Amino acid sequence: MKIVVAPDKFKGSIDAISLCTLLHKEIAAVYPEAQVQLFPMADGGDGFASIIRHYLNTETVSARTVDPLGRSITAQYEFAEGQSTAYIEMASASGLALLSPSEYSAMRTSSYGTGLLIRDAMARGARHIVLGIGGSATTDGGMGMADALGFMFLDRNEDPLDHCGESMSQVEEIVMPETDFLEDVQFTVACDVRNPFYGPTGAAVVYGPQKGATPEEVLQLDEGLKKLDAAFMKYTGRSVAEEPGAGAAGGLGGACDALLGARLISGFDHLLDVVDLEEAIAEADAVVTGEGCVDGQSFDGKVVGRIAELARKFSVKTYVICGQSTLSLKQLNALGVDRMVALSDLAPSIAASVAEPQEYIAAAVKKIF
Asked: Which of 164, 228, 299, 363 could disulfide-link to 141, CB 3.0 to 4.6 Å?
């Protein structure tokens, strides 16, 4: 039997590489003769940089930057010197995990720290920036990132605006950088979602609440993104209103598209260009995937959904092991998943399954197979 193991991390619980190792051990206990191939995965969110390092053996670089509230921190990114390519995980500088729940503020947080990491990578010689933009704390339409790269956003009085979410609705002018240092740099944005810039399924409405936005603030942020897109159209000739992925990371995807000419792609698809996962699945009898919480968003560009698509393409069975799930097995069957086991169903509590996932992996594997 040939089995492919290709999970995402269980966020806040276990990383994808460690999870692969555990799953391999338990599958071997059930099927000692099985040929098991391990492909730890990411979709552009938290853990993207470590997965890149796993496959490409990149150098980890530390740089001074700021967190979403402007406090000085040190963050890391990956650098492939031979290809002059930097792999930057937005969450390392502008991620929600850097804040306590009491500090969540979609109105005040900024992606400025991500821009500082981009500047550091360019100073190191990077001519291709691959930016993974999941796990953000921000809904600033990318204003902070752009500000760090030399763009200025002005209000009706031509005064510079703070680079945060509450300023978007006041943007009247965009001033381009004084130098052309960005012209020779290629940008690729690895998105973990496909949401448009604004509107009912846009950045503010869908993700603003989990970043601390009240219902009134969600409406203000959504109007701000609309106003910002109008400025993009005026000063760059490009609207990103309906661009899939433009709403990722609170609109950072759209700013990268409009201001940097970035190519927005699925983080999963970027990894497919790096590893031979599709070929391995085509030759497999079964594929095991998973993530911390399986829900409707799992099938909108994230790892579990994309693995199920690939497996279905080659008529390969798809098994999911996850931390918890909001979907029934009937719903999962309709989405291409043959079997699913949630650790929360095996543990005495969700908290226990998050804290000690390794305690329940063996039982999950036996239940799947």
From this structure: 228
How would you list the strands of the sheet with 59-66, edge to edge? 59-66, 72-80, 85-89, 128-132, 186-191, 263-266
Residues 308-354: tens digit of each pLDDT:
999 999 999 999 999 999 999 999 999 999 999 999 999 999 999 99
Q: From the centroid of its chain, how far is CA 127?
A: 22
Q: Domains of the chain, with CATH numbers?
A: 2-39+275-368 (3.40.50.10350), 48-268 (3.90.1510.10)
Q: Once rounded to an integer, what is the mean pLDDT over residues 104-122?
A: 98
CB count within 10 Å of CB 366 equals 13
The answer to whether 74 touches 65, Cβ cutoff 8 Å, is yes
pLDDT score, position 287: 98
Rounded Cα–Cα distance for residues 168 and 221 (Å): 7
Output the pLDDT for position 179: 84
Nearest to residue 228, comparing CAs of 203, 200, 197?
197
- Residue-wise pLDDT tens digits, 3-22: 999 999 998 899 999 999 99
Vertex 84: Cα angle to 80 and 90 (nearest 5): 65
Contact assessment for residue 80 and residue 56, using Cβ atoms and an 8 Å cutoff: yes
Closest CA to 76 of 133, 135, 120: 120
**Measured between alpha carbons, how far is residue 87 from residues 76, 94, 97, 180, 260 in Å?**
10, 15, 19, 22, 16
SS3 137: coil
Nearest CA to 366 among 37, 34, 26?
A: 26
| Two tokens, residue 260 | 């940097």
Whole-number Cα distances in Å, 207 to 131, 138, 214, 249: 19, 9, 11, 9
